[in-house]
Amino acid sequence: MLDAICKIDLQPDMTYSVFKFQVLNDAEIERLRQHLFCPVCDGKAYFRKASKDGKAACFGSRYHQLDCAEFKPSASRQREEQDATEVNQLITESDALKIDFSRSPSTAKAKPSSPQTAVLDKKAQSNNALELPNQIAEPQSQYLDDKRAHQPDQRIGSQGLEKLLNSLLRGSDLASSDLWVYTDDKYRWRAKNLFVNFVDAEPTDNGSPRMYWGTLSHSDKAMLWLNPADSKDVGIPIDSFKGALQQRFGIEDRRDLEGAGIIIFGKCFWNKDKTRKIIQLWNRDVTRMHLSKADD
Biased-composition ranges for Low complexity (predicted)? Predict the structure, then answer.
């Protein structure tokens, strides 16, 4: 996309070319980038800065209508649609679904982390776990919607986070389904209560986690926070596991996060001033999330 429309409440819509947008100062880009839409189909759009290896700045969208003139089918789009079909079939044929958090990302070009980075990540996780026991180390009995044992005659499917995210981005029935979904061997939730788009994220009364999903607009300059495109009052802190996230999903700079799809198992709570909702990755375990970079 060479153009995008910026829509801000109580202000007239403004159309930007990518050439005009990229020369704005950093503060103005940060202010506007969560208000961008496709000029043809009005799908939510993102802005990606020029990359260090020569890729040009661009607008893009993961929400184009199929008949949108700006829509250009890609290999990843086709894969997402196939995953949506597969998940819908699983919903139809299964009595329950177990999330397999052990499956590795299939598309990441991960780079090895240095021993120093690994040590710092482990130290940060340990320190934060001690400082925030009530926010992170929740006893399982406090966050479960349902507690059941498997029934011997149940047809239980299994799927990893990557395909679940792809299916949600492509409109599968998962987020509205009554299917039981197991997050481990013992505990299950109705899918419609477990999978929550960022725009609908709300702090839970008992600190129970959900599978939050959607797309990212951008991160802060230091890549310590992720900002969902779907909601402007939600933030995802990643400072304590940044190195592990970069290694697992092949993240080299901020541009890799712009427009990315994401699903994260975590808890939602208010910040101290109740001005922003925080989604904290459960136990800061990066296997409990998946990140899908946008196509160039």
Answer: 102-115
